[in-house]
Each structure stands twice: as structure tokens, then as C-alpha cells.
Design a protein that fits this description.
mainly alpha, 13 helices, about 75% helix, about 0% strand
């Protein structure tokens, strides 16, 4: 919208040159409104993608080693993760090297998180998707031990989440995972559905709809790619969105919404 305004206003004030300048300024404003401050310059997208991927696999290695050993379930989860990304053999070897680097006993993850914040820190969705991927990784073996939760909390704080925001996101992702594959057969499925959306049974229909729309917006492919999420990782975000959709459908049915 602002591209059109910029072109018209620029042409009115300065002619053809003004229209061109107005288009550029309008494009920046449109990207800011759609994707956030960190995505204003599309030329930095490739760099954000590179840093995001590096941070994901290094952090996964650190997280897998947090409880003192790397389980077979965690290794399998990382392998499945790479397979879903459709990585080439070369990129797969790089990801494995990053994972091993992060899992080294004396590895300090803080410099990598600092780099992530300097490159991706202005894009809320990238910070949230990084944390979500790590939470899913921690839950790969079916449990979340104290060491893993402690590291997740430290990463969340580094990303700008306070304790309450971290606990809310952790609870939401944990309960969203109960709806993987579109299943909702647990005896506590309805309670899980409310938690997956970050609402309660006491929330109004309108509050539930707002929470649902906000989550679906956060997982929207175009928005995530605009902020710098690698295209191959969109499938993971889509899976999370499907879990949210299943939880929301269950709540709608129970409320006749």
C-alpha cells in the first residue's frame, strides 16, 4: 500500500525521480509493517538465514548434551529434522559439524546467541521459531529434565523472554505437540487444546479467536520467509500451525462456535 502512496506522492513532488524514490521508501515501510524492523532490508535475508541455521544446529547440540549424554531419540530427531529440510550432502555434513560443535562439553553458546541477536534480534518470529525448535528438540525423548529446561530458560532470557513469557511459550508448545498428526484422542485433549492456544476455559469466544489468529499469523509462511526463516524450514512451521488448527477445531466443536 505504501509503495503506491510513495510513487504518487513522489511523482507529484519531484516527477519521475521522486516516484522512484517514493517506491523505494514505500517498499521499506511495507516490509516493516509486514515483517518487522529486522526485515526492512531484503538484501540481508540470506545472511539471516545462514545465522539462523547455524544457531539452530549449534543450540541443538548444546541442548542434547545438557543432561550429560545424547540419547538415540535426540540423534534420531536431529536426523529427521535434517531430512525434512531436504539438505544436500554438503549441507548435511555442515549441520552435523555444527551439532557436534555445540555438544562439546566446554562449548560456550553465548557468542553464537549474541551473533543471532545482532543479526536476527529485531525479528520477533525468528526468535520465537528458534526457541520453539529447541523446545521440540528437548521433548524428542518424551521428557524435559531440569538441565534441559535450565538451558532453554537461559536461551530464552538471552533472546529477550522473561520468565513468565518463557513458561507460557513452553506450556503452549508442549500442549501443541499433543495434537501432532491431527490427533486429539487424549482424555485431557480439550484442556490441552486451551493450553495449546494460551487461553483457558474461562476465556471468551472472542479471546480464543484472537489467540488463534495471532498464532496462525506467527506461523504464516510468507511472514516467516520475509523475516529470514530459511525456506526449507517452513515445513516445520506449517506442522506447528496444523497442531494449533487441530486444537482450535476441538475448542470450536466443544463450544459450538
Amino acid at each position: 500500500m505504501f509503495k503506491i502512496i510513495g510513487v504518487l506522492l513522489g511523482y507529484y513532488l519531484f516527477g519521475i525521480f521522486g516516484a522512484f524514490l517514493g517506491y523505494i521508501v514505500g517498499s521499506f515501510i511495507d516490509r516493516y509493517r509486514a515483517y518487522g524492523a529486522g526485515a526492512i532490508n531484503p538484501l540481508t535475508s540470506a545472511h539471516r538465514q545462514k545465522v539462523f541455521l547455524e544457531t539452530v544446529f549449534i543450540s541443538m547440540g548444546k541442548l542434547a548434551k545438557a543432561d550429560g549424554h545424547i540419547s538415540q531419540d535426540e540423534i534420531t530427531h536431529v536426523e529427521d529434522f535434517m531430512q525434512k529440510l531436504g539438505m544436500s550432502s554438503e549441507h548435511r555434513q555442515l549441520a552435523i559439524a555444527l551439532f557436534k560443535q555445540g555438544s562439546a562439553p566446554d562449548f560456550d553458546i553465548r557468542p553464537k546467541l549474541n551473533e543471532f541477536m545482532s543479526v536476527c534480534g529485531h525479528t520477533h518470529s525468528l526468535k520465537q521459531m528458534l526457541l520453539i525448535y529447541l523446545i521440540v528438540m528437548a521433548l524428542a525423548d518424551g521428557r524435559l529434565d531440569a538441565a534441559e529446561e535450565g538451558l532453554l530458560r537461559d536461551v530464552a532470557l538471552h533472546l529477550g523472554y522473561d520468565q513468565l513469557a518463557f513458561r507460557q511459550l513452553l506450556d503452549m508448545v508442549l500442549n501443541q505437540s499433543h495434537f501432532a498428526g491431527g490427533q486429539a484422542t487424549s482424555p485431557t485433549a480439550l484442556d490441552d487444546a486451551y493450553k495449546a492456544l494460551g487461553v483457558t476455559r474461562e476465556s471468551s469466544d472472542q479471546e480464543i479467536k484472537r489467540a488463534y489468529r495471532k498464532l496462525m499469523s506467527q506461523y504464516h509462511p510468507d511472514k516467516l520467509m520475509g523475516q529470514g526463516l530459511p525456506e526449507d524450514m517452513i515445513a516445520m512451521a506449517t506442522a506447528q500451525a496444523q497442531e494449533v488448527q487441530t486444537a482450535y477445531d476441538l475448542i470450536k466443536k466443544s463450544r459450538n462456535m
